[in-house]
Design a protein that fits this description.
The chain has 295 residues and is of the alpha/beta class. The chain folds into two domains: 170 residues, Rossmann fold (3-Layer(aba) Sandwich), CATH 3.40.50; 106 residues, 6-phosphogluconate dehydrogenase C-terminal like domain (6-phosphogluconate dehydrogenase C-terminal fold, Orthogonal Bundle). Strands 3-2-1-4-5-6-7-8 form an eight-stranded mixed beta sheet, sandwiched between helices. Helix 4 packs parallel to helix 5 and helix 7 crosses helix 11. The protein is globular and about 65 Å long. The two termini are 14 Å apart.
């Protein structure tokens, strides 16, 4: 028997790439969902035209009135700013979640600020892109992608079950973590790669400028493009991530520097020993797969 969500009204605050894609994915799977959006007027108009939301407003109170589920799909610091602002207008029993890329501060703030009869579960879909905006929203963005939920000792299990069903509806794969564990892990597998992509891109750009030569750019192949694709990501998002996960990112930078020294030493003294590193990386890379669905 097919399970159906009992959310009658879903409000998405921030109808950009992630919020818009969630709206499109949910409407595609269940056109009966009533989805309201809160954003700037021009974004609301585009989101309605694309079918990501049924209605929209620039007014927080009007947008979340009578909502059964509120999804805050904005940058991290905006989420932190919104939580106390929306609290007075949330109805009893409402489930609130977010899509922020860091979780520690958000979950701590939500559990401290939101009313006790409102349920919060931190969320983070691992389905972003270097592109952004409602124009780039895609109903298949979450297909077979990992959707992380962060729980604590105060998490309401009924609310957790409801949001797990939504993740199933959009064909994403769930992963449940502690908020601090989440921040440590994404600091390694998401935030460090972003720092590396930015650093590598800028290094090559500066080498070209120093030598007054565009030959570096002419020689760039698909490997470099693949490694640095995310360097195009907007700083507006990464500013918040770097500030709210600074400690973990710095730890992972140090871990990478330590490993780079090992590679440097082998290259300098025993180049043939790099074969072991390459083989180890090949085996690990082939083994990478998304967590299996645990239905």
């Amino acid at each position: 028997m097919k399970e159906e969500s009992d959310f009658k009204k879903i409000t998405i605050i921030g109808v950009g790439l992630i919020g818009g894609s969630l709206g499109l994915a949910l409407k595609k799977k269940n056109p009966k969902f009533k989805i309201s959006g809160i954003d700037k007027l021009e974004i609301i108009e585009k989101a309605i035209a694309r079918g990501a939301i049924d209605e929209g407003t620039i007014n927080l109170e009007n947008g979340i009135k009578e909502a059964d589920l509120i999804i805050i799909a904005t940058p991290v610091k905006t989420i932190l700013d919104l939580l106390p602002r929306i609290n007075p207008f949330i109805k009893k029993g409402c489930l609130v979640t977010d899509t922020g890329s860091t979780k520690g501060q958000i979950v701590e703030t939500a559990e401290k600020i939101l009313s006790k009869d409102v349920y919060f579960i931190g969320g983070h879909p691992i389905a972003g892109s270097e592109k952004y905006g409602i124009e780039e929203a895609n109903p298949c963005l979450f297909q077979d992608k990992t959707y992380i939920l962060t729980i604590t000792k105060d998490t309401n299990l009924v609310a957790l079950k409801k949001i797990l069903l939504l993740i199933k509806i959009i064909n994403a794969k769930r992963l449940i973590l502690d908020p601090l564990e989440h921040d440590r892990i994404v600091g390694a597998v998401s935030h460090l790669p972003q720092i590396m992509a930015v650093s590598l891109t800028n290094m090559i750009g500066e080498l070209g400028q120093l030598e007054n030569s565009d030959n570096y750019f002419k020689a760039i192949g698909e490997g470099f493009k693949d490694m640095t694709r995310i360097a195009s990501s907007p700083y507006q998002i990464w500013e918040d991530i770097c500030e709210t996960n600074q400690e973990n990112i710095l730890k992972m930078i140090q871990e990478f520097k330590n490993y780079l020294r090992i590679i440097e030493d082998k290259l300098k003294n025993h180049p043939g020993s790099l074969k072991e590193e390459f083989q180890k990386a090949q085996i690990f890379r082939k083994s990478i797969s998304l967590p299996k669905r645990d239905d």
